[in-house]
Specification:
Oligomer: single chain
CATH topology of one domain: Cobalt-precorrin-4 Transmethylase, domain 1
Shape: globular
Distance between the termini: 44 Å
Strand order of the largest sheet: 3-2-4-1-5
Strand content: 5-15%
Order of helices and strands: EHEHHHEHHHEHEHHHHHH
Length: 331
């Protein structure tokens, strides 16, 4: 029986060791990124890692640098490493099409590129709408804007995961064992891929952050309220008008102000990001919709450190609750 592991992960340097442990047990590794011509040069050493990262758009440079070092090692040990992300690949092709002077109405309506363009356009529009509202709009209007964006983002994830499952289905069966890299929010890739391959291919999902949580003596997940809302719409696109949607959207407004923004790369064995995300989740899970409304008006324009201090004070003064430990992770 052939086996495929889907490694659902967070893009943090502290997760790389657990990722490496899993990748080493598989013959082929499928990365969650579109093909880049210079990628092979980076793997072989013909192009330095730093020069390669300058050519690609990376959100987390320390994580990406560590992953490149790992992939080089695996490549030298004979692993097959393949970039597969059709949505982003088609999006890049759409951008190139427009850069040559073409217009959106020149995309063929039945094409994948047209689907990708429409989905990306709608999601970007919803995100920009949220950015316009969050600084000056009412709490209620901001919650609605978050929900609109989460719905659009969920539609984008559904298309991304469907296209990637289709592309992976024919490729993973070529190897006795395969590792598929995926962000944790792409969980729908698991049922989609399981439905797309023969029964003799075993598909196993693994959440790589669980090892970190276990080491820290905790259980649960690392889906913040915004991710929980998006996942709700991914799997239940017709749901609407529930109190849970409003509460998750409201909590996400507070969560994004508390979470550590900088990429931490020291003392990784202590899992600084995992600890920070977990305590921020535990903090906002204690907030009601009214709590979120009060806090939002106070912290919407504050820097992260000041927002954390105000939320800590709110827990003590208003909620009569012990002060949460949401200070910047110690490294």
């Amino acid at each position: 029986m052939k086996r495929t592991t889907i490694g659902f992960s967070i893009h943090r340097p502290e997760i790389i060791p657990a990722t490496a442990d899993l990748m080493r047990w598989h013959e082929a590794i499928f990365l969650e990124e579109p093909p880049v011509p210079e990628f092979r040069q980076m793997l072989t050493g013909a192009l330095s890692i730093d020069d390669y990262l300058l050519l690609v758009d990376v959100e987390y440079p320390e994580f990406s640098r560590g992953m490149c070092r790992l992939l080089r090692e695996l490549y030298q040990n004979g692993k097959k490493i393949i970039q597969v992300e059709p949505f982003l690949q088609n999006l890049l092709e759409v951008h190139a099409f427009f850069s040559r002077g073409h217009c959106p109405n020149e995309l063929k309506p039945e094409s994948i590129q047209h689907q990708v363009y429409l989905t990306e356009r709608d999601t970007t529009k919803a995100l920009l709408n949220y950015y316009q509202i969050v600084m000056n709009g009412s709490f209620e209007a901001t919650v609605k804007a978050i929900i609109r964006f989460a719905r659009s983002d969920a539609a984008r994830f559904r298309l991304r995961d469907r296209l990637r499952a289709q592309a992976l289905a024919s490729q993973i069966t070529q190897y006795p064992s395969a590792f598929v890299e995926a962000g944790a929010i792409h969980y729908s890739l698991y049922p989609l891929l399981r439905q797309s391959v023969p029964k003799q291919v075993q598909i196993k999902p693994v959440f790589l952050a669980h090892k970190a949580l276990k080491t820290l003596g905790q259980k649960g997940h690392l889906f913040g309220p915004g991710d929980q809302l998006t996942l709700t719409y991914i799997f239940h696109p017709d749901i609407r008008g529930t109190q849970r949607e409003d509460l998750l959207a409201a909590r996400s407004l507070i969560y994004t102000k508390l979470i550590e923004k900088e990429e931490l790369s020291a003392e990784l064995k202590n899992f600084p990001h995992v600890r920070n995300e977990r305590v921020c989740m535990q903090t906002v899970n204690l907030l009601t919709l009214d709590d979120c409304g009060r806090l939002f008006s106070l912290i919407r324009r504050l820097k992260t450190a000041h927002a954390r201090q105000l939320v800590e004070d709110y827990f003590v003064r208003v909620m009569k609750h012990p002060r949460p430990d949401i200070k910047r992770p110690s490294v």
